[in-house]
Specification:
With 349 residues, this protein is an alpha/beta fold. It has eight helices and twelve strands. Strands 6, 7, 8, 10 and 11 form a five-stranded mixed β-sheet that branches. Strands 1-3-4 form a three-stranded mixed β-sheet.
Length: 349
């Protein structure tokens, strides 16, 4: 299969495989592991319009899980086991939400688990499904209740621009562009990486350091997503994409394996995953290689604000593999049995 197969290709492969929802599948399996964006497409096609209000309360959950099986090409089991997650093969859980307060009881968020957040209307009809990884959900936590949340400290040095990793990891070096102009105008920021179309980390650095001194409107600390979105848009333009896109998945610019951090304080919030983790990323294998979290490049922009505008003052670029060699990690974690994560108003947009 190519690097961007149709979502229905995965569904058809699963249907032909005879696998159940409980049979394990390796993350990145080119034929059977459904990446989160494709999961979202398949689930929306099948679930939107399903009227849960016509069903008895005790059978609603079963109806949702049954429809999810159909959407993904799995046979419906005679009974659904109480496993964690419910769909073991795809590392997928489902949450039906009428409110914007997501509650996860008696278990931790897992970075590579996928969470299908299913929005229902006032009359109990499914209107939208959003699929995110545990790490993406962790970014939305403003309550401080996550059972494990990694943090590090950013200490500015004498240089306003620092390339911490002089070269990419071995796996990414096999994907880097050999084009003289390194043109990205025909690519989508959120599409999967394509062999020989990933910018070398040195070229990314040269383009991003030109952004030092750039300023944009400050929407305030309660609008961090808008701040970050504005920065992502500017970075897409600087790297050479013809348009801006952000689907809330990790890393932010998946096509270039680039995660972006906008810092107005020295504390770097890293969510559930250590940047140097060798755990596989939720991406299809590329030329037989599985991208890991430590292969992702991290762009950190330190900034100042006068309350009206944010100004970028420093830029740092590193691989996840070398992240903690420059930014010291905080120790310790917070414990809580119940997670309450307020979903942003535009979460389902």
């Amino acid at each position: 299969m190519n690097n961007n197969p149709a979502p229905t290709d995965y569904r058809d492969n699963i249907s032909r495989s005879g696998l159940s929802i409980y049979d394990p599948i390796d993350i990145g399996d080119s034929n059977l592991w459904i990446p989160a964006p494709d999961l979202e497409i398949l689930l929306n096609r099948e679930l939107i319009g399903l009227n849960l209000g016509t069903l008895p309360l005790r059978t609603r959950s079963k109806a949702v899980k049954t429809t999810v099986c159909t959407a993904l090409g799995y046979p419906v089991p005679k009974r659904f086991r109480k496993t964690q997650p419910r769909f073991l093969g795809q590392k997928l859980d489902t949450y039906v939400q009428k409110s914007n307060n997501l509650q996860v009881w008696n278990e931790e968020l897992e970075p590579t688990r996928r969470y299908a957040i299913i929005r229902i209307s006032a009359d109990d009809r499914i209107v939208r499904v959003k699929v995110v990884t545990g790490d993406a959900l962790a970014k939305l936590d403003t309550t401080g209740t996550l059972t494990q949340k990694y943090q590090a400290r950013l200490i500015c040095g004498s240089h306003k621009a620092e390339l911490i990793s002089s070269e990419d990891t071995k796996i990414v070096r096999a994907l880097v562009s050999v084009e003289a102009d390194h043109n990205l105008s025909d690519l989508e920021p959120t599409s999967n990486p394509i062999p020989r179309r990933v910018l070398p980390i040195s070229i990314v650095f040269e383009r991003l350091k030109a952004m030092i001194g750039v300023s944009f409107e400050d929407r305030g600390r309660d609008q961090e997503r808008l701040r970050g979105g504005h920065l992502h848009m500017l970075i897409c333009r600087e790297l050479g994409f013809s348009n801006y896109a952000d689907d809330g998945q990790f890393p932010d610019l998946r096509n270039q394996l680039l995660e972006i951090k906008l810092q107005t304080s020295p504390t770097i919030d890293l969510g559930l995953v250590r940047p140097d983790s060798t755990e596989p990323l939720d991406l299809p294998r590329i030329d037989g290689n599985q991208i890991r979290h430590c292969d992702v490049r991290y762009a950190l922009f330190y900034s100042s604000t006068n309350g009206a505008r944010v100004t970028l003052t420093h830029v740092f670029l590193t691989t996840g593999e070398q992240f903690f060699k420059r930014f010291p990690q905080f120790q310790g974690k917070v414990l809580n049995r119940k997670l309450q994560i307020p979903l942003p108003r535009d979460f389902f947009d």
